[in-house]
Design brief:
By secondary structure, the chain is an alpha/beta fold. It has one domain: Purple Acid Phosphatase, chain A, domain 2 (4-Layer Sandwich), CATH 3.60.21.10. 20% of the residues lie in helices and 24% in strands. It contains five helices and 13 strands. The strands form two sheets. It has a seven-stranded mixed beta sheet with strand order 3-2-1-10-11-12-13, covered by helices on one side. Strand 11 and strand 12 form a beta hairpin. Helix 2 packs parallel to helix 3. The radius of gyration is 17 Å and the shape is globular. The two termini are 20 Å apart.
Length: 279
């Protein structure tokens, strides 16, 4: 567990020793807005906790804004400037509303990319379409996934906004990407170790085949679900181990929900323990 935050539960880790790796922070659904959608006090607290963690990289999986307006993009850029260290950003469905899809590259750069780091390769993809809540990737982005996977021997992490399977505790299912089957096929047959998503405003993680599918909750939107509150994820990547921790921003607690040993395929998933995230 990360010592800078309160200990929320026990941690289950393999006894094997691993070489130093990389620490990612995974945040999503910030929803910068001048109205009631954005909680500036929660954002301030979240950034304080996030900066204490000192992540190697902050991956933001979309919905920086609510309506895709110029004023919201300006606010989002200002607010993201408070986050220490390197950030990578992909758009969400809200960011592409009202011609927001033209503003995103101006404020945050390319929407689809392959970035190579010392320990990993990251493929970021825009799953959103203008003025639609639904999403899709399409053949071009599928080819980009394949390109990222085969670019080098480093583990590949893929990130996009929409989800590829239903997410528990997020209401009636409506917005799985249209080409989820084809996307999953590429991801699973290539044994991609980690896929990061957002959109549903609740944290979740599950292992399918040899891949972890991980959703981040909402970082600072007022539209939280039940008792989940505002959250973000910490992802520790070692040579053979991935640990996913959910940080509850409001009460400053954290919970390791997944520990996945890549060397033998063993995966501990604490999401459905008695002291679950939504209580």
């Amino acid at each position: 567990m990360h010592p800078l935050l309160k200990q929320g539960n026990k941690t289950y880790l393999s006894k094997r020793l691993y070489a130093p790796g990389m620490k990612l922070a995974h945040i999503s659904d910030i929803h910068c807005n001048e109205g009631n959608d954005f909680n500036p006090k929660m954002f301030e607290k979240a950034v304080m906790l996030l900066n204490k963690i000192d992540a190697d990289l902050v991956f933001i999986t979309g919905d920086l804004t609510t309506w895709g307006l110029l004023s919201e993009y300006e606010l989002a850029r200002k607010k993201l400037g408070e986050i220490n260290g390197e950030t990578v950003v992909i758009p969400g469905n809200h960011d592409e509303r009202n011609l927001g899809f033209k503003l995103f590259p101006e404020f945050f750069g390319e929407t689809d990319f392959i970035h190579t780091y010392k320990e990993i390769t990251i493929v970021g993809l825009s799953s959103s379409e203008p003025d639609k809540d639904d999403g899709r990737l399409g053949r071009g982005r599928h080819r980009l996934i394949e390109e990222g996977i085969h670019k080098n021997a480093k583990p590949t992490i893929i990130g996009f906004h929409h989800h590829v399977i239903p997410v528990p505790n997020s209401g009636r299912e409506t917005n799985i990407i249209e080409d989820a089957g084809e996307t999953l096929d590429i991801i699973l047959k290539n044994e991609v170790p980690l896929v990061l998503m957002g959109h549903r405003h609740v944290p979740y993680g599950v292992k399918i085949h040899k891949t972890l599918l991980v959703n981040a909750g909402t970082f600072s939107c007022t539209r939280t679900r039940a008792h989940f509150g505002n959250t973000f994820n910490i992802i520790d990547i070692e040579r053979d181990m991935i640990t996913v921790t959910v940080v509850n921003i409001g009460d400053e607690t954290q919970k390791d929900i997944i520990t996945y040993d890549l060397s033998d395929g063993c995966c501990y998933n604490g999401y459905y323990e008695i002291n679950s995230l939504n209580k």
